[in-house]
Inverse folding.
């Protein structure tokens, strides 16, 4: 269970990025965090991992307040999550295999052969095993995103996967493909299911995967609900944000 209790944060004494945010989420949920650019979405994920500390409030992961934990204690908390960073940043000087096994090497005591086998298995699962010897610059955007997902999943058995803009900058078909992959990876049924939080600008991608939608606006949670609540919202700004959803529906 993840619980934010009255969390506030501002950087360099500027206006609040997050102001008195409270919500609870289970690891098995499928959540989309929506909001304008600069709205604090990535910051919310970073807070959850203890990469940033709030100015005030509590962040409980499985009942433990991570705000007060040391770096070594935070390691155990971070192991509960896999993270696909925004833009899926890969290490440019490493080939696909080395990118994927990077965290395997760090977190597991497997032999080199076992690591190779695991890397192939993961890349195979994501449909890009043939790219194992390529360098990042030789990959398309969609392939890079898949490698980033493989790397995030390597070496740990997460309770929840955090995707920061996993589909942004991709053509609609490739984005759709990544959405299917995100769904496939959220295997099992609650409460055992490995859930996810996907952070995105794209409502159309969010509705393909998520069951719960959280909309951040002016440092606060302006909406938190399911798809039918999202479709029926009266909030003018949220309606304009979800306009593509309404436009798409007209053509279905
Ligand atoms: N380490 C930092 N130091 C100073 N300001 C920061 C830092 N990290 C984020 N910010 C600021 O906090 C605000 C929220 O940033 P954040 O990256 O969380 O937004 P976002 O919703 O993820 O945006 P985007 O959709 O563009 O990725 C921005 O104004 C940003 O400039
Ligand atoms: Mg961001």
């Amino acid at each position: 269970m993840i619980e934010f209790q009255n969390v506030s944060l501002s950087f360099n004494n500027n206006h609040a990025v997050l102001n008195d945010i409270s919500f609870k989420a289970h690891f098995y949920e499928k959540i989309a965090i929506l909001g304008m650019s600069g709205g604090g979405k990535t910051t919310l994920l970073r807070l959850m991992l203890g990469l940033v500390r709030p100015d005030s409030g509590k962040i409980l992961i499985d009942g433990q307040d991570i705000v007060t934990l040391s770096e070594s204690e935070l390691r155990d908390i971070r192991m509960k999550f896999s993270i696909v960073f925004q833009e899926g940043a890969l290490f440019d000087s490493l080939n696909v295999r080395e990118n994927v096994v990077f965290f395997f090497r760090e977190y597991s005591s497997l032999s080199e052969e076992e690591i190779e086998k695991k890397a192939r298995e993961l890349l195979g699962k994501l449909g890009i095993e043939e790219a194992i010897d390529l360098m990042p610059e030789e990959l398309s955007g969609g392939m890079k995103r898949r490698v980033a997902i493989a790397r995030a999943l390597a070496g740990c058995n997460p309770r929840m996967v955090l995707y920061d803009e996993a589909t942004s900058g991709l053509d609609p078909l490739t984005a759709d493909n990544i959405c299917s992959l995100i769904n496939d990876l959220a295997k099992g049924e609650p409460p055992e299911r490995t859930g996810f939080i996907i952070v995105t600008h794209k409502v159309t991608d969010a509705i393909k995967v998520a069951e719960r939608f959280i909309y951040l606006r002016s440092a606060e949670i302006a909406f938190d609900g399911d798809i039918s609540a999202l479709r029926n919202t009266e909030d003018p700004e949220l309606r304009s944000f979800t306009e593509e959803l309404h436009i798409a529906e007209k053509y279905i």
User: Anything to note?
Assistant: Residues 11-12, 17, 35, 37-43, 86 surround adenosine-5'-triphosphate (ligand 1) (CB under 6 Å).
